C-alpha cells in the first residue's frame, strides 16, 4: 500500500465552553494522496475548519485527540512546537476565508511575503525580495515590484486573496489547505481564484484540501470529496460518484439545495 | 503623509485661538477685578485708589475687552506674554527658564509609565487570570485612586529618609529625577497596563495572527512583528492624554519634591495673584499639550497605514 | 431565519420585539448584574461606611478634631490610633471629619460639571447646525487643557478656597460631560425609527428625548460615579497646594500638606489622610466599574 501524504485516524476535537463540553469533530478519519484535490463540504459548524486547524496544530492541545495524524512523513500528533512550526507554512500551506482580515494591516505585503523565505528557507534581502515578486507574478498581481511596498488595505479583496495564496505556496508546500478561499469574494473573482489555485497545484505538484460549502466550487476543482455533518464524515467518494449517486440523505439534501441558490426558490420554504 | 501633517497643523490654529480666548475670558470676564485682587494679595490689602488706577492703566484694564484680547493674542503670537507683576520679568522668559525641568519630569514620568505598564500588560494578556493579571488590575485601581502628592510623600519617606537611596527634594542630578518621575509614572502605569492587556488580547484573536501561526512563525516573532505594532496603536492614541496627565501631575509633583518647574511657577503665581504670569503660563502649558497631541496623532498615523493614506 | 417573528405582519423587522424585550425591566436587570459584581459590592460597602462616618462624625470621632491634646506628634497608639499632628490634634478624628469635606466636594463639584455639561451636550446634539459647531469647538478648546490646569485658571480668578475648588473642579469636567451627551444624542438621532419619526414630524422631540434618556442613562451614571472619585482626588490635590481649604480646616489634602514638613519624624500626619482618600476613591472606582458592567453586559466578559 502506498503511504498517503496525510493520514488521519479517529480525530476528535472538544471545546470547553461556559456551557460545558462541545464536540466539534467526532472521530474523523481520512487520507489525502499526493497530487489529488480533496474537498470537504458541509454547512458551517460541521467541523470542516476545525479539522484542518487540528491538523495544523493550531488548536489547544488538550482538546485534540486522535489515534493517528500522520503527514509529510511525520507523526503530527506528537510533534513538538518547534517541529510543527517547521511544517506549518513549509510543508503545509493554509489559506483562510476572509482576505480582508487575514493579512496584517500594519505590515507591507512585501514584508509579509518575504518573511516566509526568511523563516523557512533562510533567505533574506534581495533574494527574498525577488522570490516575493516572482510569487506575486505567479498569482497574477500586476506590477508586483512596486506593490510590495503597499499595505493590505490598498488591495481589493480578490488581490488580497491572491497575496494570501502567494504566501501559502511561497515555500512550495506538499499540501495546500484552502479554507473557503472564495466565500468572501465576488462571483467573478471566485472563478479567477479557483483557476489560480488549480494552476499552482499542478505546477508545484501539491495535494490540496479545499474546504467549501459551495458544491459548484467542489464539482469544478476536486477529485474526491468528504461530506461532514455535526463533526462526522457522513459520506465520501469520488466527486463524480457522489454527485451522481449520493448515498446519504444529508448529502442528497445538500445536492438538492444547489439549484436554490437563486432568490426565488429560496423564498419558498 | 506630508499633506496629513500639514492639515493637522492648520487645524491647530483655531483651537489655539479658542484656548487663548478661554484663558482670557476666564481671567477677565468673571466677577472680581484682577487689579483689586492683585493688590489685596500682593501688597497686603492696602488698596489705595491711586495705586489701583495706576495698576489698571498699567495692565490695560481700562481698554475695551476686545482690545485687551487683541493685545494678549497678538503679543502671545510674537512670543510676548507680558511681564510678571511680582518679578517684573517677561513671563515667557520665566517659563522657558523653568521648562527644561518640567519637560524632563513629564517625559521621564511618561517613560516610567510605559516601561512599567507595557510589559505588565503584555504579561497579563499572556497569562489571563494569573497573578500578574491580578497585579495589573490592582495597579490600575490604585493608580486611579492614589493622590500623586501622597505617593510622592510616601516615596520620599521610604526611599529618601529611610533608605537614603535618592535625594528628597531639589537637585539637578539624575537621581533627583528618579522619585518624582517614578511617582508620576506609577500613577499612570496601571492605565497603560490595562489598556495594553485588553488590546493585546483582542489582537491575539485577530485573523492575521492565526495567519501568522499558520505561516510557522515562532510565538516570539509573531508577537514582536505582527502583534505588538497592532496592539500598541490604542496605547499610542492615549499617549497624548497621558502626557497631559503628566503635565498636570508636575504641578503637584514639583511642589512635593521642591523642583523649580513651570507647574510650581503657576501655583505660586496663583497664590501671589500674579495674573499675567498665570495667564501666560497656562496658555503656554495648553499650547504644549495641544502640540504634543498633534505629535501623537502623527505617530499614530505612522503606525497605522490605514490612517496615513486616508483610509 | 424562518419563523423568527411569529405572527408578525411586519416582515423583516425584528427590532420592535427585541427592543420590547430589552426594556422589560432594564433597571432591575442592571441592578442584578451590578450586585453580582464582587468589586462593586466591596466598593458599595466602603462608600456606605464612609457616608456613615461623615454623617455621624461628631459621634464617631474619638476627639474634637480641633482640640489640642497637649502632646504634639505622638506616634500612633491605642489612645490615638493615627497619632497626633504637629499641633497635638488627634489625626484619626481629623480624618473622620475630613470625610465630610471630601465627600461634599465630590458631590457638589460633580453637580457643577453635570448640569452645564448635559445642557451643552443636549443642545449641541439636538439642534445641530451652527449651535453644534459652536459648542463642539468650545468643548474641543476646553479639552485642550490638561484637566487640573483648567481648574487652576478658574481658581486663579475666583481665589483660593474650598468652595471655589468645588466650582473649579466641576467646571473643568464640563467638556467631558458635554462630549458624552452630545455623542449619545447623535447616535440616537441616527436610529432609523427616530429618523422616521423626525421626517414625519411626529412629536419627534418627545420620542427623541425618551430614547436619548434610555440611551444615555448608563454611560452618564457610570461617568458621574467615576467623576466623583476623580473630583475628590483633584480637590485634595488643590488643597495640598494651598489653593483649597485653609487652616485650621480638617481637610485631607491640607492635612498631608501640613504633615509634609514633619514627614521624617511623624509620617502618620501626612500618611493617614492619604489612605482615607485612597479608600474613598477606590470605592467610587469599584462602584463605577460595577455599574458599567451592570449597564453593559458585554464589558463583564472582558
Determine Rg of chain B (CA atoms, Å). 24 Å
Provide the succession of SSEs of chain B: HHHHHHHHHHHHHH
Query: Could you say which overall geometry of chain C the principal axes of the C-alpha atoms support?
Result: elongated
Annotation, overall tally of beta strands of chain B: 0
**Helical content class of chain B:** over 70%
Q: What do we call the CATH topology of the largest domain in chain B?
A: MetI-like fold
Shape-level CATH architecture of the largest domain in chain B = Orthogonal Bundle
Alpha-beta classification of chain C: mainly alpha
CATH superfamily of the largest domain in chain B: MetI-like
| Name of the top-level CATH class of chain C | Mainly Alpha
CATH topology of chain C: MetI-like fold
Class per helix and strand makeup of chain B: mainly alpha
The major beta sheet of chain B can be summarized as: none
Task: Describe it.
The complex is a heterotrimer of chains A (269), B (311) and C (302). With 269 residues, chain A is an alpha/beta fold. Helices cover 40% and strands 25% of the residues of chain A. Chain A contains 12 helices and 11 strands. Chain A has a 6-stranded mixed β-sheet, sandwiched between helices. In chain A, a hairpin with a 2-residue loop joins strand 10 and strand 11 (232-238). In chain A, helix 4 crosses helix 5 and helix 5 (125-138) packs across helix 7. By secondary structure, chain B is mostly helical. Chain B folds into 2 domains: 2-86 and 272-309, no CATH class; 96-246, MetI-like fold, CATH 1.10.3720. Helix content of chain B is 79%, strand content 0%. In chain B, helix 1 packs antiparallel against helix 13, helix 5 (91-126) packs across helix 11 and helix 7 crosses helix 8 (175-204). Chain B is globular. With 302 residues, chain C is an all-alpha fold. Chain C has one domain: MetI-like fold. Helices cover 73% and strands 0% of the residues of chain C. Chain C has 14 helices and no strands. Chain C has helices at 15-22, 26-36, 38-55, 57-60, 91-127, 129-143, 147-158, 162-172, 174-189, 192-200, 204-240, 252-259, 267-295, 297-300. Chain C starts with 14 loop residues before the first helix and ends with a helix. The A-B interface holds A 56, 58, 85-90, 93-94, 96, 98, 101-107, 115-116, 119-120, 151, 153-154, 164, 167 and B 206-208, 210-218, 221, 225-226, 229-230, 233, 303-306, 309, 311.
Amino acid at each position: 500500500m502506498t503511504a498517503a501524504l496525510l493520514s488521519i485516524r479517529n480525530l476528535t476535537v472538544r471545546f470547553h465552553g461556559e456551557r460545558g463540553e462541545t464536540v466539534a469533530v467526532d472521530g474523523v478519519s481520512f487520507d489525502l494522496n499526493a497530487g489529488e484535490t480533496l474537498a470537504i463540504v458541509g454547512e458551517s459548524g460541521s467541523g470542516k475548519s476545525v479539522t484542518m486547524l487540528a491538523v495544523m496544530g493550531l488548536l489547544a492541545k488538550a482538546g485534540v485527540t486522535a489515534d493517528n495524524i500522520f503527514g509529510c512523513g511525520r507523526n503530527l500528533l506528537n510533534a513538538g512546537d518547534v517541529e510543527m512550526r517547521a511544517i506549518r507554512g513549509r510543508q503545509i500551506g493554509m489559506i483562510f476565508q476572509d482576505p480582508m482580515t487575514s493579512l496584517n494591516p500594519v505590515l507591507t505585503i512585501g514584508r509579509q511575503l518575504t518573511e516566509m523565505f526568511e523563516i523557512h528557507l533562510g533567505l533574506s534581502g534581495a533574494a527574498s525580495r525577488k522570490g516575493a515578486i516572482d510569487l506575486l507574478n505567479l498569482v497574477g498581481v500586476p506590477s508586483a515590484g512596486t506593490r510590495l511596498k503597499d499595505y493590505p488595505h490598498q488591495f481589493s479583496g480578490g488581490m488580497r486573496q491572491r497575496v494570501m495564496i502567494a504566501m501559502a505556496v511561497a515555500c512550495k508546500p506538499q499540501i495546500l489547505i484552502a479554507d473557503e478561499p472564495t466565500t468572501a469574494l465576488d462571483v467573478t473573482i471566485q472563478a479567477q481564484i479557483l483557476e489560480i489555485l488549480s494552476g499552482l497545484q499542478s505546477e508545484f505538484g501539491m495535494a490540496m484540501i479545499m474546504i467549501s460549502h459551495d458544491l459548484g466550487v467542489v464539482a469544478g476543482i476536486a477529485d474526491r470529496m468528504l461530506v461532514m455533518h455535526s463533526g462526522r464524515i457522513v459520506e465520501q467518494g469520488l466527486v463524480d460518484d457522489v454527485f451522481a449517486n449520493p448515498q446519504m440523505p444529508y448529502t442528497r439534501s445538500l445536492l438538492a439545495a444547489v439549484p436554490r441558490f437563486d432568490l426565488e426558490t429560496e423564498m419558498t420554504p | 503623509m506630508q499633506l496629513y501633517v500639514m492639515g493637522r497643523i492648520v487645524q491647530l490654529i483655531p483651537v489655539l485661538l479658542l484656548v487663548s480666548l478661554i484663558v482670557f475670558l476666564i481671567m477677565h470676564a468673571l466677577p472680581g477685578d484682577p487689579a483689586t485682587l492683585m493688590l489685596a494679595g500682593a501688597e497686603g490689602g492696602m488698596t489705595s485708589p491711586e495705586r489701583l488706577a495706576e495698576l489698571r492703566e498699567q495692565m490695560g484694564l481700562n481698554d475695551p475687552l476686545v482690545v485687551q484680547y487683541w493685545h494678549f493674542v497678538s503679543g502671545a503670537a510674537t512670543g510676548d506674554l507680558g511681564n510678571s507683576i511680582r518679578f517684573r520679568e517677561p513671563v515667557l522668559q520665566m517659563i522657558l527658564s523653568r521648562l527644561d525641568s518640567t519637560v524632563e519630569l513629564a517625559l521621564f514620568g511618561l517613560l516610567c509609565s510605559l516601561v512599567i505598564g507595557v510589559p505588565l500588560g503584555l504579561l497579563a494578556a499572556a497569562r489571563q487570570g494569573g497573578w500578574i493579571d491580578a497585579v495589573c488590575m490592582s495597579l490600575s485601581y490604585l493608580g486611579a485612586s492614589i493622590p500623586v502628592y501622597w505617593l510622592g510623600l510616601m516615596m520620599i519617606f521610604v526611599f529618601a529618609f529611610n533608605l537614603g537611596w535618592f535625594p528628597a527634594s531639589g537637585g539637578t542630578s539624575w537621581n533627583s529625577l528618579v522619585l518624582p518621575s517614578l511617582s508620576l509614572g506609577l500613577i499612570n502605569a496601571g492605565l497603560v497596563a490595562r489598556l495594553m492587556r485588553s488590546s493585546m488580547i483582542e489582537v491575539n484573536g485577530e485573523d492575521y495572527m492565526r495567519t501568522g501561526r499558520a505561516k510557522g512563525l515562532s510565538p516570539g516573532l509573531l508577537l514582536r512583528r505582527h502583534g505588538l505594532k497592532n496592539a500598541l496603536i490604542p496605547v499610542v492614541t492615549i499617549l497624548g492624554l497621558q502626557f497631559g496627565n503628566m503635565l498636570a501631575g508636575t504641578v503637584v509633583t514639583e511642589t512635593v519634591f521642591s523642583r523649580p518647574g513651570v507647574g510650581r511657577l503657576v501655583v505660586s503665581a496663583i497664590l501671589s495673584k500674579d495674573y499675567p504670569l498665570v495667564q501666560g503660563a497656562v496658555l503656554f502649558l495648553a499650547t504644549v499639550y495641544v502640540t504634543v497631541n498633534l505629535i501623537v496623532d502623527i505617530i499614530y498615523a505612522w503606525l497605522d497605514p490605514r490612517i496615513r493614506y486616508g483610509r | 431565519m424562518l419563523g423568527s417573528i411569529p405572527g408578525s405582519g411586519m416582515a423583516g423587522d425584528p427590532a420592535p420585539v427585541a427592543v420590547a424585550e430589552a426594556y422589560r425591566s432594564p433597571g432591575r436587570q442592571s441592578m442584578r448584574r451590578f450586585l453580582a459584581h464582587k468589586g462593586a459590592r466591596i466598593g458599595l460597602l466602603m462608600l456606605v461606611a464612609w457616608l456613615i462616618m461623615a454623617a455621624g462624625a461628631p459621634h464617631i470621632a474619638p476627639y474634637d478634631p480641633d482640640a489640642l491634646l497637649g502632646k504634639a506628634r505622638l506616634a500612633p497608639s491605642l489612645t490615638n490610633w493615627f497619632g497626633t499632628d504637629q499641633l497635638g490634634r488627634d489625626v484619626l478624628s481629623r480624618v473622620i471629619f475630613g470625610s465630610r469635606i471630601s465627600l461634599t466636594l465630590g458631590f457638589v463639584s460633580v453637580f457643577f460639571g453635570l448640569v452645564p455639561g448635559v445642557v451643552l451636550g443636549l443642545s449641541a446634539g439636538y439642534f445641530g447646525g451652527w449651535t453644534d459647531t459652536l459648542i463642539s469647538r468650545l468643548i474641543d478648546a476646553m479639552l485642550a487643557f490638561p484637566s487640573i490646569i483648567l481648574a487652576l485658571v478658574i481658581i486663579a480668578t475666583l481665589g483660593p478656597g474650598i468652595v471655589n475648588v468645588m466650582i473649579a473642579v466641576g467646571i473643568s469636567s464640563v467638556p467631558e460631560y458635554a462630549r458624552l451627551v452630545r455623542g449619545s444624542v447623535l447616535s440616537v438621532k441616527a436610529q432609523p425609527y427616530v429618523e422616521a419619526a423626525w421626517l414625519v414630524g411626529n412629536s419627534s422631540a418627545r420620542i427623541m428625548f425618551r430614547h436619548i434618556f434610555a440611551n444615555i442613562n448608563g454611560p452618564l451614571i457610570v461617568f458621574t460615579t467615576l467623576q466623583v472619585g476623580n473630583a475628590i482626588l483633584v480637590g485634595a490635590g488643590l488643597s495640598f497646594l494651598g489653593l483649597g481649604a485653609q487652616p485650621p480646616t480638617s481637610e485631607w489634602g491640607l492635612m498631608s500638606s501640613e504633615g509634609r514638613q514633619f514627614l521624617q519624624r511623624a509620617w502618620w500626619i501626612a500618611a493617614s489622610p492619604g489612605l482615607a482618600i485612597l479608600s474613598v476613591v477606590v470605592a467610587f472606582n469599584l462602584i463605577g466599574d460595577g455599574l458599567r458592567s451592570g449597564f453593559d453586559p458585554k464589558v463583564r466578559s472582558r
